[in-house]
Amino acid sequence: MDIAANLAHIREGIAAAARKANRDPSSIRLVAVSKHKPVSFVNEAAHSGQLIFGENYVQELAAKALQVAVAVEWHFIGHLQSNKAKYLAGLVTMIHSVDRISLAEELDRQWERLGKTCEILIQVNVSGESSKSGATAKEATALVKQISLLRNLKVRGLMTMPPFFDDPEDARPYFRELRELADSISRQEIPGVSMQELSMGMSGDYKVAIEEGATLVRIGSAIFGER
Ligand SMILES: *Cc1c(COP(=O)(O)O)cnc(C)c1O
Q1: What pLDDT does residue 39 have?
Q2: Alpha helices in the chain, H assignment, sequence order
Q3: CB atoms within 10 A of CB 185
Q4: pLDDT of residue 18
Q5: In this predicted model, what pLDDT tens digit does every residue of 9-27 receive, in sequence order?
Q6: Hey, which of 56, 124, 165 would you mutate to test ligand 1's pocket, going by the most ligand atoms within 8 Å of its Cβ?
Q7: Cα 33 to Cα 56: distance, rounded to the nearest angstrom
Q8: Which atom of ligand 1 is nearest to the CA of 161?
Q9: Which of 32-46, 73-87, 118-132 is least confident?
Q10: How many whole angstroms from 33 Cα to the centroid of ligand 1?
């Protein structure tokens, strides 16, 4: 497997999808999802210019962050238990998966101790599948308002994971719904809140997600191979 070649291929795919949607390719950031892959893969990707890495498990992220030789940025993208929030403080620059006020309050406490702020996204379960975490679209606006009062967190947008489809076109309505929800929250002009980021799209469907407005695509297997 050639990580550098895979990355180059994905970067071309991102640029092509952006052009198709009349968007500036530089408005889309690639999060390389390295879960269950060795730190040597992260180092290899970092040496080919990849800057942002996404992890789903706290211990795994913490271990890798210690071992990576190059300056990279870590995003947490998995389901997060409140009692593990403390291990992320100081390690990650963004958390994509905030879906409840109790978790937000704990993150706020941990970043308060650090004396820093943490950028977060609200994970929304647009499909309503019971197997998926995330706030419902209905809950999301109220949750954003509550979190906007926490001084050490900055709400930057929304994240979603649609159901898996063989045909990525089938995911389009879910991506569109996330964008429409972000637009609707944005119109409320909640102080301190921005809806500039839409984290959506994975290896199989990132092009469709970019056409629907993704600013962060989370790609694992197309870069690092199947898990
Ligand atoms: C694993 C994972 C990804 C990457 O999925 P791929 O299909 O391997 O690209 C993206 N987002 C989340 C939340 C994940 O858990």
Answers
A1: 97
A2: 3-20, 39-47, 58-67, 85-88, 101-114, 137-147, 172-187, 206-211, 221-224
A3: 22
A4: 98
A5: 999 999 999 999 999 999 9
A6: 56
A7: 8
A8: 13
A9: 118-132
A10: 6
For ligand 1, whether the C-beta of 220 sits within 6 Å is yes
Give the mutation target among 30, 77, 158, 200 for probing the ligand 1 site: most ligand atoms within 8 A of CB. Answer: 77
45 vs 40: CA distance, rounded Å: 9
Residue 1 has pLDDT above 90, yes or no: no
pTM across the whole model: 0.98
The ligand 1 atom at the shortest distance from the C-alpha of residue 56 is 15
What pLDDT is recorded for position 58? 98
- Spatial distance between the Cα atoms of 149 and 138, rounded to a whole number of angstroms: 19
pLDDT-derived band at 131, boundaries 50, 70, 90: confident
Gap from CA of 226 to ligand 1 centroid (Å): 11
Region at 212 (left for phi over 0; alpha for psi -120 to 50; beta for the rest):
alpha
Closest CA to 220 of 5, 59, 71, 35: 35
